Amino acid sequence: MIIGLLTAALTLLLVQLAIVTFLGQKILTKTKEQYSISRGSAELNKVFVGVLDIETATRGYMLTNNREYLDPYFGALTAINSSLTTLSENISNNVQWVKQLQKLSPLIKVKMEYLDNVIRLQDANDMLSLKVKVADQFGKKAMDSIRLQYGELDASLRTERANIATINQQNQLYLLWIQVIIDSLLVIVIFIATCLGVKNLRAYKLRNVELNIESTTDSLTKLANRRLFLVWAGLALGRTTRGETGLAILFIDLNRFKNINDTFGHQAGDDVLKEVATRLTSSMRSSDFIARIGGDEFAILISGKITKDGLLTFQKNITEVISAPLSRGAMQGKCVRASPRWPVKFPHLWPGQTPPPERAVN
């Protein structure tokens, strides 16, 4: 399940990457196109402004006969030619714009030739011819045609630039929504995968704890088993060797336990063992350690300041607790009495040593 969720998350990431790359490329392409159109529109405006500058310079020269008015004229001519070249390069990918520019360029050329003739007549001081040329209003008609054609081309460029801006906004909005949706799905998938992972990890740890408990616990009496007892005894013996505490181990073996199994059955024997374990546990101190180390064998590990008399008293108490009658309905009302055999050992004492200071073990 977790692998499937992680695979889904990876798939979502790849889909997101593909969509972002695709839309990003489209936005970039449209942005470049928009920049090219904007530059072309700027050059078109320079052309129109240049034509107006030339016309203004020519009119000023005609009225004042001062050639200083012609300085903007020659500068505008150079700017117009340069702008027309740049404009042609930036709109060359659109057939409609190319056709509109092809209509506009001859009109500008005619207007420039007309103004050039006017300047020549003014230089020659041929006022009669100049009056005739001005009177036919050819220059005004040419300028009106230029304005009309300029307006059409400029409007086309502006419209296309606005369309591109709208498309880019839509693509950016799509990109934003796609990223939000995919990121939300990723968060959900990762959250679910994390929850499942935590759940599985907890189950794994719990199972390990259960296995550890099963490996160190007697399944019948729920006491520690031989394995855990040996570990615990080894640790206690290590503390005893360092002189930190005393240690005693009491082994309990139930007499004639086999007779119970043979007479009343193994279930009755199991019930007796569980009852004995319960009685032993209730008689122990919190510092004592009890384990079932065999079929009807138990062991008690006692640590602390221990005396032999105190240990014998403790043995007597345990014997009384275990020897109390055990009643069970399955035994047909009969009573069973279990009595322990007690080998008592002081493994921390070397031969000739005396036990630690007296402390009663109750």
Outline the biggest β-sheet: 5 strands, antiparallel
Based on CA atoms alone, the radius of gyration comes out at: 54 Å
Average predicted confidence as pLDDT: 81
Strand content: 5-15%
Judging from the principal axes of the Cα atoms, what is the shape?
A: rod-shaped
Q: Got a strand count?
A: 7
Question: How far from one another are the termini?
Answer: 57 Å
Indicate the structural class: alpha+beta
Helical stretch tally = 9
Low-confidence stretches: 329-362
Number of domains: 2
Helix content estimate: over 70%
CATH class of the largest domain: Mainly Alpha
Q: What order do the helices and strands follow?
A: HHHHHHEHHEEHEEEE
CATH superfamily of the largest domain: Aspartate receptor, ligand-binding domain
CATH topology of the largest domain: Four Helix Bundle (Hemerythrin (Met), subunit A)
Mind telling me which CATH architecture of the largest domain this is? Answer: Up-down Bundle
